[in-house]
Specification:
It comes from Teichococcus aestuarii. One of its GO terms (cellular component) is membrane. GO terms for molecular function: catalytic activity. The protein is an alpha+beta fold. It has two domains: about 325 residues, Beta-Lactamase; about 140 residues, 2-Layer Sandwich (Alpha-Beta Plaits), CATH 3.30.70.270. About 45% of the residues lie in helices and about 20% in strands. The protein has 14 helices and 19 strands. The strands form five sheets. Strands 1, 4, 5, 6, 7 and 8 form a six-stranded antiparallel beta sheet that branches. The protein has a five-stranded antiparallel beta sheet with strand order 14-15-13-18-19, sandwiched between helices. A four-stranded antiparallel beta sheet has the order 10-9-12-11. Helix 1 runs antiparallel to helix 8. It is elongated and about 120 Å long. The N and C termini lie far apart (about 105 Å).
Length: about 550
Amino acid sequence: MALVPSGAEERAKARAGMGVATTALNRRAPLLRQSAMFVLACGLVLSLLAWHMTARRTDEEASRSFQQASQHITRLVEERMLRALDLVAGFRGLFSVHRHVSRAEFREHFNSLHLPERFPGVIAIQYAPLVPAAEKAAFEAQVRADTSLDPHGYPDYAIHPAGERDFYIPVLYNEPMAGNEAAFGHDNTAEPSRRRAMERTRDTGEPIASPPLTLLQGAAGFVIRHAVYRRDAPLWTEAQRRAAFLGQVSGVFRTTDLLSSLLEEHLKGYRIRVEDRGDAREGQGPAALLFDSQAAHASPASLLGAPQRLEAPLTVAGRVWVVEVSRPATLPHLAPLPVAVLLSGVALTLVVRWLLLGMARHSDRTAEIAARLAHEATHDALTGLPNRLLLEQRLKEALETAKQDQTRLALLFIDLDRFKAINDTLGHEAGDVVLRQVALRLRGALRPTDTVARLGGDEFVVLLSVPTGNLWRGVADRILALITQPMTYGEHRLSVGASLGAALYPEHGTDAAALLRHADDSMYAAKRGASLATAPPAPSSRAG
């Protein structure tokens, strides 16, 4: 029969087993550390390589998409302008087909096109005939007597702006009339740039676009003018065209409306600018802005550098337009996909290390959360000052210390004046600025051993240890002086005051509730303007 091992033998075997296990762990630990370092090095290298390759592919794809979008946007602008030219040419065709086009026929053709729905950005379509200076009065009288559309005629019609000129090109047909009344009767020869555009379309027979200008309708845009000639007249030479010139058809366009709806799907990802670079015959000149998709909120300079831009020139009715498409500067390595690849590789590489340090990180996070929660529970979220809970705790501790050491305390209760008016007129953000400024000034007026707390709203409490005399009065005066100093909020200069009441230990109470109550009563007495003789039996002051 085998003997049962004694207790000593069992303990010896256990120690031997533990020794073997410890030796195995000691031998394996360096290997694991070396393996972890090898995995870390290889994993980081592979992660960085994959990150870089993915970033390159992402950047190449983004550049291709940007180029395609730029080309598509340019085509859209070009097609829209061709439609605008066709629109003006269509109205010009009325005068080529008919020897005389009446006001009613002009309006009927305009209404049949349903332009407000089908062609956003068209402000007006107009016809302006050539009126020699000698015929001006007769022409105006004829228009005033025209009752073809309005039974009252146009009794106020006059060619404007006033002035003697050798001939006039006044707007006669003006559709729609509503909203375009300022253009009715306007002479296109009165202003040099408009006259030059008229003369060029007259001499060439081609549609001519104006530079960017402020329209008579009060908007920024441009005008396309196309000369109208006498039917069956020879138009081979400039002299023949001048002799046959009858007037012009004009299309008035607001650039923002013309292009915004067309480019709507591209406006979020890119900034689109259309610039006029001058007369096509003279080559590109200084840029004049026609359209900017982000004109109202231009982007601040980026730390990543200048945005990427692509430009494409267009010839539009004798003008050179440049369509510029830009996108914000980016770092392809920080794009979502490359970052995801990098983070995934690094995360897999660090998994062993993360497991080992997980408990420590968890403990740190727990302590940090606990400290933050403790701070939030005892401090005001807006000003960072102690709240009522922490004030009561410190006041209780201060009372106990004062009783033991037979010292005195002062409790100052502060209520801001004119704060509600600022909050109501300028909003809560302005009120928050005032409260934070007051809190900052209160901190600066006190010693590190003193306590300043916010009870809520516009009420603050200061707890002072006052070893002798009326030291608290000097602190109170300094606080009131600091609070009444003006504050700046935007363009506003704010000024608040404060009503202050005080309670002293042990004169006005030996417990927290009594001191707070007395200080509160004293503050309200100060707010009512009571003198020291009529106020509650506590020192009080008022400012503001």
